[in-house]
Amino acid sequence: MTSIFDPRVPAAAFDEFLVDALPAAREQRSWTEADGALPSLYLSHGAPPLFDDGPWMRDLHTWALSMPKPKDVLIVSAHWESAPLSISSSAAQTPLVYDFGGFARRYYEMTYATPDASALARRVAGAMPDSEPLHEHRDRGLDHGAWVPLKVMYPLGDVPVLQLSLPTHDPHRLLDLGRRIRELREEGTLVIGSGFMTHGLPFLTRESIASGQVPSWSRDFDDWAAELLAAGDVEGLARYAADAPGLPYAHPTVEHLSPLFVTLGAADEPERPVTTTIDGYMMGLSRRSFQL
């Protein structure tokens, strides 16, 4: 018996996924000015097990195909907490960051050689005030919170990608950061906040994972977030530290929640009800993902 956590052949599901995904990606229409602003996305990303989860990969790719192919992607990942505000290398084919451990060798040999993103880097820098200069880490590639989902969404690797660091976990400062990059969406940039709606890994057990049980703290937090997102209650979400049920377990550290506020800030109408594109649970953790 195998599972996405113990596949017989690592990433065999990804190989199977590519059979249909690559032809569809080649047919995807590119963004034009007539399309207007692209949406702002929050996605719950997967570590290497995503490459062994066929249905989840198909969901992500279908989501990507529902939009024109972006001119470029600006992504904020839970896995790069750095102040002052920074961007990853804008050079083409910068090597990836394999910031995970204990997986099969194949996952460390995967590549995602995206094109030059220097034009996007200049536009991002221009969107920042003089009080918050932008630093480019010229030797830092995309971490797994960025390249793992994007390798599924845009498997041709033909879209320039730039990663923006998380300089703070203060919701209002992150909302402001999202507002600064909002106009980039009108120029064909897809803005993505990449985290996980619940991420209480220390509180999962082998028994709960094997049985497919969803811990009450994960379900309670997800229900709370879903209700506020449906109501467009941005301020309610920003009060998660005081109000969210199950928070110490759902987010013992909050880096997987923080990108959500960049997504909301980058939206034209942050208080408009969101469109949930992916829901359900993986290993008891909420995969809720949405766009605005």
Automatic annotation (TrEMBL):
Record-annotated Extradiol ring-cleavage dioxygenase class III enzyme subunit B domain positions: 59-269
Single annotated GO MF: dioxygenase activity
Keyword Metal-binding (UniProt): yes
InterPro entries associated with the record: Extradiol_dOase_DODA, Xdiol_dOase_suB
Top-level class of the enzyme under EC nomenclature: oxidoreductase
Protein family according to the UniProt entry: Belongs to the DODA-type extradiol aromatic ring-opening dioxygenase family.
Designated name of the protein: Class III extradiol ring-cleavage dioxygenase
Organism in which the protein naturally occurs: Klenkia terrae
